[in-house]
Amino acid sequence: MKQQLYINQGFAAWDGILKQYQPQKTLLVCGKQSYRSIEAIVQPLLTQLSGKIITFNEFGKKPCIEDIFRGITLCREENVDLIIAIGGGHCIDTAKAINLLSKQPISLNNANDLAESIRGNTTLIPTECPLIVMPTTCGSGSEATHFAVVYIGSDKFSLAHPSILADWVIADKCLVNSLPHSIAVYTALDALCQAIESYWSVGATQESEEYALNALKIISPHLQNQFTINDQFFTDMVLAANYAGRAINISKTTAPHALSYYLTDQFDVPHGIAVALTLGAVATYTEINAENHTQKKIQTIKNILNFSDEFSQSWYDFIASLDIACKLSDYNLKEEHLEKMVNSVNLQRLANHPINFDTKQLKQVLKSRYI
Ligand SMILES: [Fe+2]
Predict the structure, then answer these.
(1) 257 C-alpha vs ligand 1 centroid, how far in Å?
(2) Which residue of 68, 103, 237, 287 is most buried, as measured by CB atoms within 10 A?
(3) Angle at 158 between CA 311 and CA 364, to 5 degrees
C-alpha cells in the first residue's frame, strides 16, 4: 500500500483510517513524557477506534533490543492487528522495529534469534500489520523512512525493510507546537543536516535531490531568524522534516551522521547538535577535495542557505546564533576521544559520503572542531 500522507491537514485522515481498519487490538507506542502534552488532542481520536488499546511506553533513551523484545512479546500475546506510533524518531523507530520483528519466525526463548534478525543475518519477511504514525517532533523524518535504528548493547544497527514504512502519516503542527524550545531547535537542526547530507550523498537520485532541496528552501528563511519558534516555524518544519525524511529514505545519510552517534552515545549530545557539530567542517573539507559535481551541489546548498563562500564559517556562525556551543571540547571530549570517534564510524554510512575519507583525514577534520 502506498503511504497515505497528511501534512498540516489536522486529523483529516482519521475518517479514512476508521473506515479502513476495525482493529481488535491496537498497540499504541508512545513516549511517556511527550505524550502527556498532546494526550488531550489525540485521545478523542483513539477512543473512536474499535477494540482494545494497549499502550507500550516503557522504553529507554534509545531503541534497544531489550525494549523491542518486550514490545514483540506484547504484540504476540495480545495478537495486535494495528500499531499506532505517536512520538519522536526514537518512538517511531521502536514501533517500526516491533512491527517487523514480531512477524518473524523467531523464538523469543532464544535471545540470539532476535539479535540475528536485527544484525541483518536473516531474510526478513514483510509485516502486514498496518502502522499509523504521528510525529511529535519536527526533525527525524522517521515517518518517511523504511529503516529503524536498533541497538544491541552499544552497537547500532539499521533495520531496513520496505514493509516497515508507515501506512499512514499524520504530521501536523498541533502535535509539535508544545515542544520545549530546545527540542524544537535540536530536531529542526537534524532535519536541516539530513537535507544537506542527502543532497550531496552518493546515493542521491533526482527524486531525493528534489525532496532535499524542498526541505532546504523551506528551512532557509528560518536560519535568518535563528530558528525563532512561532506558528510559521512549526508549520514549515513539519513539512521540511518530512521532505528531509523522504530524501534520506532514498539516499541515506553521510559522514556527519556517521560521526554523530559516538557523541550521542558516549557524551549525551542531543542528536541534532551531534550531527551539526561536524557538518560545517565536513562540508568545507568535502568542497575542497571533491570533484566538480559535488562542488556544484555544495554551492547550491550555500546559495539556498545564503551562506558566504566559506561554508564552515557561515555554518558555525549560525549554530552559535542558536546559543549552541560549537566545539567538541565544549562537550567534555578530550583529544584522545577524537581517535575513538573516528574508529566508531560505520564504514557503510561513510561510503555514502561524496569523497573518500581515510582515518587520518577524518581525524584532521575533527581536530579542526576540537578547540
Ligand atoms: Fe538524523
Answers:
(1) 6
(2) 237
(3) 35
Q: Report pTM.
A: 0.96
Write the pLDDT tens digit of every residue in 113-152: 899 999 999 999 999 999 999 999 988 999 999 999 999 9
Q: What mean pLDDT, rounded, does the chain reach?
A: 95
Tell me the CA–centroid distance for residue 262 and ligand 1, in Å.
13
Q: What b-and-e string marks burial along 35-50, b requiring 16 or more CB atoms within 10 Å of the CB?
A: bebbeebbeebeeebe
Domain 4-175 has CATH 3.40.50.280: no
Q: How far apart are CA 239 and CA 227, in angstroms?
A: 15
For 181-368, the fitting CATH number among 1.20.1090.10, 1.20.1560.10, 3.40.50.1010, 3.40.50.10490 is: 1.20.1090.10
Q: Would you tell me how many other CB atoms lie within 10 Å of the CB of residue 1? A: 10
Residue 96 CA to residue 83 CA, distance in Å, equals: 9
Alpha carbon of 63 to ligand 1 centroid (Å): 14
CA of 289 to the centre of ligand 1 (A): 24
Contact 75, 26 (CB under 8 A): no
pLDDT in tens, 259-281: 999 999 999 999 999 999 999 99
